[in-house]
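My current task is to audit a protein record that another person submitted. Alongside the sequence sits a line of tokens, each denoting a local backbone shape. Please read both lines and tell me whether the tokens look consistent with the sequence. Do not assume that whoever made the record got everything right. Thanks in advance; the entry in question is below.
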Amino acid sequence: MNVMLTINNKKKALDVSPDEFLLDTLRKAGYLSVQGGCDTSSCGLCAVWVDDEVVLSCTYLTVRAAGKNITTLEGVQAEAKEFADFLADEGADQCGYCAPGFIMTVLAMGKELNNPSEEEIYHYLNGNLCRCTGYKGQIRAIKKYLDAKRVRGEK
């Protein structure tokens, strides 16, 4: 079946099967930042935005995204680079496998939550698994990134 998707502000007509998940569609279309890990919405590697909401694309049917705006890491490169620099400064960028989904989730949190507490940050990141870091460096990076945004007057 043919679906019209808007991916990173570009309209694309794609042929998909009715039971195809958005993760597979995006990867076939060349958006390789979207990674699969669990296929059960448990790890967060496949996080993308659908109409600015975090969606785990491994269990989200592509046909549900028809007519909606999809954003992958490729669509937010400048913001992602800025946050990745904070991760690197805190030593929280070890293997990097979880980074694309993690970054998408953090950027969404930065737009949604105003000055979140550490508990709120942990809660927001609940579905993002990282096996390398223990999250302390990541939490420091998130706080510094959000503080920098606040200083610049950005939400």
